[in-house]
Amino acid sequence: MRRIPKASGSVYITRTKFASLIYMTHSEKNNEKTDDYDGFSEPRAKILDEMLKKAVFDGWSRRALNDAARDVGVDSATLKAAFPKGVSDVLRYWSSETDAVVLAAMNDEEFDALKIREKVAFGVQTRLYKLRPHKEAVRRAAAFLALPLNGKLAAELTWNIADTIWRGLGDKSTDFNYYSKRTILSGVWTSTFARWLADDSEDQAATKAFLDARIENVMQIEKVKSRAKKLGIDPTAPIGFFAKLRYGAR
Question: Which pTM was predicted?
Fold first, then answer.
């Protein structure tokens, strides 16, 4: 059985195992959508599909959104009801739909057999795999979210991405760990996403190696935290935490 190539100390998933889970994601589970809570599921989906085409050339602009709605036969009143905040809501919807696909893929018996680091890698890779057919639209979305005015939205979407993966892992923490896990994974996602945008290789090998290295870094942090707890140190108290690591617990 061939394995995904790895750098020293990096995480890997067997090629057949990963391929089978990805196949599940992009077959029947690919069609799973978030609940139609207000009756606008169909126009939202139509508008998003059209926006993914227009954004490649026109960016994520209000004009492109109006044109997309018009081209798929959605009137202005329905557009406003479906996406009250315009482009920002379209990106929220797209990200939420992608989160739903990732979560569905992680809810699988084969997934349960993976190691924790493999599960994290799978969650990130599944999201990137889902986005890959629309990479140029994603690139334009990243430029939109990089604007100072959209910083809050970018942080919100990033947090939700990390939260989705941790929920897929079955995380039920409610203490400091809830925030630390998602904050760390947000950093892993953001840096890997940036590497992915610059990776034009067919098999995305550079992105996978980069992700593996980031996950390995996180695992080392978790080992330090585990060691700290054994020494009776509270890793949620940063100053005392690092001081005691350096000088020893007393």
Answer: 0.78
Identify the structural domains of the chain with CATH numbers, from first to last. Answer: 15-247 (1.10.357.10)
List the alpha helices (DSSP H) in the chain: 15-25, 41-58, 62-71, 76-82, 87-106, 109-112, 116-131, 135-145, 151-168, 176-197, 205-230, 238-247
Residue 94's contacts (CB-CB under 8 Å, 6 or more residues apart) are 48, 52, 141
8 A C-beta contact, residue 214 and residue 7:
no
Instruction: Report the pLDDT value the prediction gives residue 36, as an integer from 0 to 100.
Output: 57
Over the stretch 42-71, which tens digit does the pLDDT of each residue have?
999 999 999 999 999 999 999 999 999 999
Q: Got the DSSP string for 52-104?
A: HHHHHHH-S-HHHHHHHHHHTT--HHHHHHH-TTTHHHHHHHHHHHHHHHHHH
Region at 237 (left for phi over 0; alpha for psi -120 to 50; beta for the rest): beta
